[in-house]
Design brief:
By secondary structure, the chain is of the alpha+beta class. Helix content is 18%, strand content 31%. The structure holds ligand MIG.
Amino acid sequence: MEKNLDQENTIKGKNISYTSEEEFQHINNPVLEPPLIVKKYLTQVTHYSQKENSFFFYDDLAAVEVKVVSDEIIRVRLAPHGSFLADFSYAVPSANRHVAVFNFKEDETSYQVSTNTVTCVINKSDFLISFQDREGEVYTKDDSPMHWEENPDFGGYYVYCTKTNEESETFYGLGDKPTHLNLRGKRFVNWNSDTYSFGFGQDPLYRSIPFYTGLKDGNAYGIFFDNTFKTYFDFGAESPNQTSFWSEGGELQYYYIHGPKMIDVVKRYHELTGTNYLPPLWALGYHQCRWSYYPDTKLESLAQEFRSRKIPCDALYLDIDYMDGYRCFTWNKKYFPDPKGLIKKLASDGFKTVVIIDPGIKMDENYWVFKEGKEKKYFCRRGDDYFMEGHVWPGRCQFPDFTNPQVREWWGTLFQGLVDDGVAGVWNDMNEPAVFGRGTFPNDVRHNYDGYRGSHRKAHNIYGMQMVRATYEGLNKLFHKKRPFTITRAGYSGTQRYGAVWTGDNVATWEHLRLGALQLQRLSVSGMSFCGTDIGGFSGDPDGELFSRWIQLGVFSPFMRAHSAGDTGEREPWSFGEYFEGINRKFIELRYKLLPYIYSTFWEQTRYGYPILRPVLMLEQDVSNSNREEEFSFGDKILVAPILRQGITSKKVYLPKGRWYDYWDHSAFEGGEVHEVSTSLETMPIFIKEGTVLPEAPVMQYTNEKAIEIMHLKVYHTDKEVNSFLYEDHGDSYAYEQQIYLEKKFIVSGDHGKLTILQEVDGLFTESYSEYEMVFYGLPFEAKNVRVDGVLSNLSVHTDGFPKLVVSKGFKKIIVE
Ligand code: MIG
């Protein structure tokens, strides 16, 4: 190890030991220059102590805490001068910190803190920390000891952690970074930024997710650096053998999350930071947005247009022009003289109304929100107590301090009027926070930080998250028993608990379509599964082909919304002529057919923490897949390869090992190889995994338009045993928390002459239908016999020519021979 310079400081060319107080005291001149500020490294462990599931290790100056959080998660914290900061995190609710079974060992060279699955080794001589599994396989280890540097201007420290980076190691995650999936060789910074028309590789963007997954020798682990200050990540950019992360302040505090499967790393990250809330079903339909639709008659004709053209749609959005002079929580009475009437009318035709909200509150003494906020001292202030004032859409504004719990509570109540008017969802914009001209707040703005206080350096990256939290929690109260829907632009780890995210102001280009596919996969493996892009591109004008291809990606985006800036051409599914309208309708209809599957996939995220979009690498954890970026799975069963390039009529698609079925013609493909798939504009490559039971609903013009009379189940043959899930509930209430839901498990197994389907049902919900219509694909034999719970039944032929069975939803076992 290189020699540490930290204990030596040069004073007038003479080396003086910084730690030796005596030497200082024997110097007569008290105005001698203080010790120079240098980077200090941990030296060697002198002793340790234990408190419950935390172990503390010390050198001359610093303390390090190693805390067992769960069987697979261990937290490391550094206190440069021995005192830790308050243990508070917006990302990790304290209830998510479990105590597990653990073990402690000391030998000559090291201390070892272990759980049933992972061991954290702390070297005595150099304080290097490593993590290994039960077999002693090292997943990640320090390259140099944790280090820090005092920050004389603000207090506190710059804090650093440097791990070794093996040549074959690859890295994933960090949220919305608009670049290739593998982050190796790159450096990033996290500082939430309003980045209109961002470009490939631009950094930072709107969100800060300081969490990555490393993959080394087929083994995955995660590092979550829970620090809200400006953080940096370097994956071998500066030095190819090192991966570093550091911050301009706060604590060096990170969670090691064990794999070895990538999907489990993400799942466990969700255990720490929470999963997406279960959205109302309508939030998963198609949404139409624009900056802006007004006046009221425009919304009415838009709604009519959708219905008369028979293009399904669940939500229409009101961008900033619905407000009176951009004052939040008000209506522009000229454009919207009767908002309640309008929203009711739209609702009667199956449309939910979602409105935008911004953090900037117009400074206007006659505006109740400003007056109340001012009286209650809810707006952010500068270091010297001036108000934080800046220009945004309404003109000169002040900004609520969403890090104050009272302010969040208050903000939540402000939605009363909009909720009374019938608003069903809220879109939180500009919450990086964005300020015209200077970009964001200056660093000296002070924040409550839930009582832990901090300047904007500390609160910047969580400002947006706390805004959408306030919105979500407020709506939740006001809606009583209904689930709200919220989206946010800015966010930090854990934001998934309060809202969906969209990728911000993208551009109507093919490159941005590709970027979108990357960003959505990345957000998903970074713990933000409920994500979408502005379909069609926010700025600029797509042609019909680009728009339709974007709609196709949209079907497989967890959040499906078309949006566009005001200075662009019309951007509805019918805006590009009849030919494209037909394609757009077909794919939006596909989204609606797949809703039972999509909703079940959300349930798997909410309940179990599985990411919704999964890169091929996550399906097949082989480093040769690390550059496969243009195909991914949506949930566990559907693999798609959206067409992301102009003029393409065929695409090479890699299918992971196993058998797959073409969604359109049901033909079988062997995985583990690349297939050339022909794909005109009217189609796109969609594959279903063998053994899947894929539920499909009848097409509706909006969710819950009518009761489902019969549920379609597409059953794909396998010679393995494969589980599928179908989750159903009311779609918009909290009854599911009282077990009023159904979680159905289908277990499919087969061989060359037989296929068996078992059904297990859990929960107390009652579906509207009483039968399934099952169609069997890929049977390697001619089906002659079918027995349902031992009773011989009849197969018929489905319109597509495949064997079909209509069967009671209560069946337990079906055998097809
Ligand atoms: O300064 O509300 O990203 O979706 O349409 C622009 C107007 C403010 C930025 C959002 C965009 C929205 C727009 N907003």
